[in-house]
Amino acid sequence: LKETSFSIGLQVLFPFLLAGFGTVAAGMVLDIVQHWDVFKYVTEVFILVPALLGLKGNLEMTLASRLSTAANIGQMDTPKELWKMITGNMALIQVQATVVGFLASIAAVVFGWIPDGHFSIDHAVLLCASSVATAFIASLVLGMIMIGVIIGSRKMGINPDNVATPIAASLGDLITLALLSGISWGLYKELESKVYVNPLVCAFFVALLPIWIIIAKRNAATREVLYSGWEPVIIAMAISSVGGLILDRTVSDPNFAGMAVFTPVINGVGGNLVAVQASRISTYLHMSGMPGESPETAPRRCPSPCSTFFSSDVNSRSARVLFLLVVPGHLVFLYTISSMQGGHTTLTLIFIVFYMTAALLQVLLLLYIADWMVHWMWSRDLDPDNFSIPYLTALGDLIGTGLLALSFHILWLIGDRDSDVGD
């Protein structure tokens, strides 16, 4: 609570840059794989991209926020408490990852079928197997990394709220997108000769569900989330899938192929920054009591922008610091993409202006919504660690993808057309 703006910025800067370079790498991967056969002929895979990348917000970032709060208030100080928190939370995110991955594939099938009126059972099973396998493996790997980061941060005297969620994001986008691309490509190849492989893969991961449910139910800290934590992750998945539909409709047009490399970057940066802010506000509220029990931090149903960004409150200070990171951070990431000759868009001045406007507007909206949402959930006796970040990162995906697509369409209309750059 005694952190200054400088100390907040110093602690957030390195993880923020690390997370940003992770999203740049993910963007470069998406820019390459969008030309693979599985992305060309099963375009619904694009719809899965924001939904599965959003799992870092739905699961890993929520896990990081939950464990950061537990570490800060002394619930992980003994080996017994630590082991109990780890096993329960790891089992919980495997349950959530499998279910959300399955539902994301259904959403992708539906959103892909509605505009075109075309349905293929083979493609539907491919989407299901790819989504469930990617969600499960990514969550397992990232969950283990998150636990190590939080334990290490605590031992080094660093606030885990400032570093855990960005590091989850830095590796989350790249690992998830690489897994989705590789798995979907491999399963697409198997469609030609071994049709039974796809349903077997899907059935295998679904069959593991009862094991994870039993482990999660044995832990009091995760039992409640197992029963009541489904609404945010499912709604967040649906919101991200709408962003995926926008991505699918946009990059399927060769004139807008350049959008692919920037989508994980703008969405990742926005999601990372708002997750840090939501995690910090939640920890601040937990230090003053239990959800709904702290009159000195009375929830604000509709905070004014001035109180969110310009007050002397510690959370307002962190909001200013995080917002000020947007422009320099994106300039570094855009320069990195350009120097690596990624994408299909020349970084002209007018493009940078439109891109920065979209990025600033996205983060401004997200930080304001976070200030309202975390306090509102607290007033409703809901733990923001479990409920706020999925909504916020999903909104970040939808707002970021929508604003980016709008920017590319406006640039096309005013004559800024160079879709072949980097081919």
Structure commentary:
With 423 residues, the chain is an all-alpha fold. The chain has one domain (5-414). Helix content is 79%, strand content 0%. It has 17 helices and no strands. The chain has helices at 5-33, 37-41, 45-53, 55-72, 79-116, 121-155, 160-190, 197-207, 209-217, 220-228, 230-251, 259-286, 305-309, 314-324, 326-339, 349-379, 384-413. Helix 7 packs across helix 12 and helix 16 packs antiparallel against helix 17. The longest helix is centred in the N-terminal third of the chain and has 38 residues, at 79-116. It is a multi-pass membrane protein. This is Solute carrier family 41 member.
Strand runs, count: 0
User: How many H/I helical runs?
Assistant: 17
What is the H/E order? Answer: HHHHHHHHHHHHHHHHH
Task: Tell me the helix content.
Answer: over 70%
